[in-house]
Amino acid sequence: MERVKVSVIMLAYNIGAYVEMAIRGVLCQRTTYKVELVIGEDCSTDGTLDICRQYEERYPGQIKVIAHKQNLGLQRNFLDTHRHCTGEYIAICDGDDYWFDPHKLQRMTDFMDTHPDFAICFHRVINYYEESHEKSLSNGGQRRITDINDLARSNYITNSSSLFRRSYYPVPPAWLADITSCDYAMHMLNAQFGKIYYFKRPMAVYRKHAAGVWSEVQTSRMLTTALAAREKLLDYFQTTRPEVYELLRQSHTQICLNLLRHYRRHSSTPTPPTDIQAAEERLLRYQPQWTPAAIDIHLAEPHQSPWKRFKSFFMRFLKGIRKVGSRLIPLPNIPL
Questions:
Q1: 8 A C-beta contact, residue 277 and residue 179
Q2: Distance (Å, rounded) from C-alpha 141 to C-alpha 143?
Q3: What pLDDT does residue 211 have?
Q4: Which among 22, 64, 72, 327 has the fewest CB atoms less than 10 Å away?
């Protein structure tokens, strides 16, 4: 019986409008080895499960649908779906994204097979803002080779572009279930074992649902989610990798400051004092030498010269033109 080379994790919850395209993007992959698609279906109410089941019946042995009897939530769904993977490598395709390059997996595994000192590889994606139909390319200026220290500073890996070795964590740590989104934490854990390679070629579309991305509630939720992931990683790396711990601590501080700036400047309704206090307490936990006055100093906007203000305005203007023009560029299709 042919062994599975790559297991593709796809999480599905109420994405009936998108999941078929995501599945087709995996099925279009042209490889010299066996690929399995493991779909974690988390009690959708919109027909997502029916679509997944139809493809499972059409592609027995290639598609496995893990249908949960009760909603587990994003992180527990990931952990349970991961448990059903058997491949040497794991790739991720979120159920509302899709792959359009049929050679994506072969290209990535060829690199990893011949470079055992690399733990993760990922690639550029097309960001698609669904409501406005605007498009952009991810990872501008991204270096080809990075490592765990770079990743500790900021998360630059789009989940649906990643591939890593399953042997590092056949069973991921149970504490991943305690955070709302475990993709960054998983990438950090894998990055302990080697370098990270970036393919500049775009090979997937990453959907951004504009209403959710830009809402004030979503912004604060996104920042608090990022803090929770880093706090778990800080506990994990504190004794084993002090240099990674310090970089994560700096990143945690910046996210706390951004959250406090959001509360002060971007909320159309007053933020509850308890939320502000909680954010300050999270910051002070990892910056105990700071005082409330020091926080205010760090929150102050840096002074900009007239030239820098003009440059900033001009760059926003050019970005706006590119956004409008991008609406005319069609999204890539999945090859038949």
A1: no
A2: 6
A3: 38
A4: 327
Give pTM, 2 decimals.
Answer: 0.91
- Encoded tokens for 287: 């910056």
Instruction: Give the Cα separation of 107 and 78 in Å (integer).
Output: 25
Structural tokens at position 236: 């994990």
DSSP assignment of 127-139, as one string? EEETTTTEEEES-
* DSSP states of 152-166: HH-----GGG-EEEG
Q: Which residue has the higher pLDDT, 168 or 302?
A: 168
Rounded to an integer, what is the distance from CA 37 to the centroid of its chain?
Answer: 19
C-beta separation of 88 from 165 below 8 A: yes
Q: Is 137 helix (H, G, I), strand (E, B) or coil?
A: strand
Cα dist from 325 to 138, 148, 204, 211, 329, whole Å: 17, 36, 20, 21, 7
Q: What is the mean pLDDT of residues 68-89?
A: 95
pLDDT in tens, 86-95: 999 999 999 9
Interval 209-230 mean pLDDT: 72
Round to whole Å and give the CA distance between 314 and 306: 12
| Distance, C-alpha 261 to centroid of its chain | 23
Residue-averaged pLDDT of the chain: 91
Which tokens is 313 given?
């305005």
Q: Which residue has the tokens 């994204």?
A: 97
Check: CB of residue 160 under 8 Å from CB of residue 210.
no
Phi-psi region of 296 (alpha: psi -120 to 50; beta: other; left: phi over 0): alpha
Smallest Cα–Cα separation from 265: which of 220, 209, 312?
Answer: 220
- Token pair recorded at residue 325: 């023009």
Backbone angles phi, psi at 159, to 5 degrees: -55, -45
CA-to-CA distance for 196 and 149, rounded, in angstroms?
Answer: 11
User: Where is average pLDDT lowest: 56-65, 238-247, 256-265?
Assistant: 256-265
Q: Using the structure block, give the residue that is written with the tokens 């005319």.
A: 328
